[in-house]
């Protein structure tokens, strides 16, 4: 499909609920917004651990915010989203094991 509109690249990770929302909304409105949508897979776990950060879901305050935010966005955009019943099992179940970090040799 050819579009004369702007190219929008969606960098997504299948574990990210925000990726799902973005996918649904961009696909829904791509003709209305006249955009050419390109999908680019990304490895969010690698980005998080490579930057030295922790997954947001590991922080109880951030997890509470994410759940609230996704509920509001789901309702606003009409995209059904259901959270797992075992939210207490965070970490590796959600993000996978931490990748091996290269070590510096001196």
TrEMBL record:
Top-level taxon: Eukaryota
Coiled-coil intervals: none
Organism of derivation: Sinocyclocheilus anshuiensis
InterPro entries in the record: DSBA-like_thioredoxin_dom, GST_Kappa/NadH, Thioredoxin-like_sf
GO annotation terms (biological process): glutathione metabolic process
GO MF term list: glutathione peroxidase activity; glutathione transferase activity
Protein name, per record: DSBA-like thioredoxin domain-containing protein
Region (Disordered): 87-106
SUPFAM superfamilies: Thioredoxin-like
Pfam families tied to this protein: DSBA (PF01323)
GO cellular component: mitochondrion; peroxisome
The DSBA-like thioredoxin domain, residue ranges: 7-84
